[in-house]
Amino acid sequence: MKKTLLVAGVALLALPATGSAQDRPAGWQRQEPSLPPISVFHSTQSANLPTAETLGRGEWLFEISHRFQPAVSAGAAALWGLDGPVVNRLALAYGASDRAMVGVVRSNLSDNVELGAKLRFAEGGRQAVPFTVAAAAGVAWNTELPDVDGFRDNESQAYAQLIVNALPGDRLAVGIVPTFVRNPRVGDDGAASAFVLGLNGQLYVSDQMSFFAEWAIAEEREGLEHDAGSFGIELETGGHFFKLLLGNSTRMNPAQFLGGTPHAFDPDGWRLGFNVTRLLVL
Question: What distance, in Å, lies between the first and last C-alpha atoms of the chain?
Fold first, then answer.
């Protein structure tokens, strides 16, 4: 009798377990691990042009950049441009999410202070040609302008950009950055508008070293007759990006350099510059 009761009890205990297994949805299947986001460029900007890359949520990025004002062609008398003076840029950015970042930038050229943001909103081509798409915008104020006609009440600037990046080869990244700029030349009596087309590319020869170049095609205007271009080498080590470059513009903040430069893009107009960025996770 006890043996019969024991067998019956085991059978009753087994019934709920059997029913639970049968109640699982017919379409249940193991979830595949999520794929990492597509990355075309390694850093969030080229020399001056932005890339579609963004910071991770909660990350900070600190930048210090210099453009030496004397030309390299000045020779030993100016230590090939290194004697200065320099245009200095300081920037701090924050990853509000894995796809959005905000930041503040200051250049000592006209004491230009900028508030900007970037949002990466599309990506694809993982199995063919990987690409990423982002939008960026910012407003800037030139807080130290000459107190003369043409500069009064004309200190603010703004810009909006579409950023399209693609990886047509394993080591070649390219980008196109159509940009709308409001008030590219603060010396004018009124604020004009301009359309600028930015182009950039980067060749990664190893995990730590790459070569880059960029060009901003702009309308010719008084005092800013030439397109701004630069080329150089990037070194990447453990959260640092160090870019050493030659270019024909000492301007760095978007609303400033996108308007053009007074210097021609030839060896006589080239200036030395560098960008140093550090990723911080607090």
Answer: 70
